[in-house]
Amino acid sequence: MNKSSWPIASICSYPACLQQEHIPAPCLxxxxxxxxxxxKAACLAALVSHxxxxxxxxxxxxxxxxxxxxxxxxxxxxxxxxxxxxxxxxAEGYAFSNIHSLAEATSYPRETVRRKILQLIASGWVTRLxxxxxxxxxxxQPEYHxxxxxxxxxxxxxxxxxxxxxxxxxxxxx
Length: 174
Known about the structure:
The structure is a single chain. The chain has 174 residues and is mainly α. The protein has helices spanning 16-19, 25-32, 40-62, 67-79, 81-85, 99-106, 110-122, 141-173, and strands at 126-128, 134-136. Helix 3 (40-62) runs antiparallel to helix 8 (141-173), helix 4 crosses helix 7 (110-122) and helix 6 (99-106) packs across helix 7 (110-122). Residues 1-10 have low confidence and may be disordered.
């Protein structure tokens, strides 16, 4: 395939367009032009890819490149939000995730999960209760929640951009 036959990947000023909170007017104008030979699906996919890349970057930075740890902490944190909020207040009465249930849920080998959980405990991210249950360490909750809320903000910005571009692209089909 020669260079001239490659499809246009994006009409926006990538990556500047992706890194802005709003879509620049020139990019939106080009997107609205019908039949301009623009691969609009590629533009939408670029936004989603940017979101995934930014989220992965945050996780990689937080866990020194170990996405398995990031995934396991996410599983632990998301499974028992009420117990997480009540940590220390009768939290022992809940049925928590443990190494076995995390291995089943993630399809990682039990030994890999055990090793990663021990690393998360040693680094202060996870607390093991006397019943063997695992919780996000309450002292690290604010840091983790801040990361999640920043990612949620990026999701909202991306969703808004996608909505705007999809609405603009509808005019092509009329």
